[in-house]
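From the pipeline queue, job 12 of 40. The input is one protein chain; the requested action is below.

Action: predict structure.
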Amino acid sequence: MASELRGGPRIGRGYLALRVLAIAAAVLVPSRSAFPDLRPLVREMLENLGSVDRIGEGVAVNDYDQVRRAALDLKARAEGLKGFDIATLGIDASRDPQFDAFLAAQEQAADAIAMAAKNQDGRGAVLGLQRLFQNACIPCHADFRERGNLLRPSVLFMTTYLSAWREMNRGLSVNDFSLVSRRAREIEAMGRVLVWDQVIESTFGLATAAERKTFRGYLGRLNAQASRIEQAAVAEDVPKIIEAVRKMWEEGCISCHERFRKAD
């Protein structure tokens, strides 16, 4: 395992650099001050993704009570979002019925998944997920998110960080140290893009040199821990991986959020 990890990093880094630069190509947009606050909606979308994951996991291990609970969460979230004011995102309020129609499609798919769970029907649950994406998620994104250019670079970067962390946890749980190493390199590659002044300002709205310097300090600490995670993964040293992951959160992510995020 260790020899495989040592043999592949350069190719992996080249691939990751291209991947991250593709994300960065979308970054040269107005500063954050010109954007609506997307966090409430992003939180809901991340919760939806979590419910989808729990449905798949429940089907995989025949835990249909978990499938049912996740489906009910999807339905409740759709019902709650019907009161969301789309005008706060710069979307014409007259389009609210279209938005609600996609939420209704989410409710219908969630009902189908919950019924499948009651019948312990894995195929029916997976069909319900297909309908969720086909009739609700994807067309709603096309009609509202893509048309309104609402998928901000900051969301792309932060959700990619979250995905990398989740995958590292999965790698740890099944002793897949190659996966841990790859995701640590992905974090390092994103860090190399985020050090650019124009990227920091355009993505996070940090207009002053002092703010960007402080941001780079947090980013440097995050990247240092990501490098330690990669090295520990090569050595298959689980305690060092766990410690470096904690420090990555504390010294990089959480400290940066405390300094720069606006109060909710």
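Job complete. The chain has a mean pLDDT of 86.
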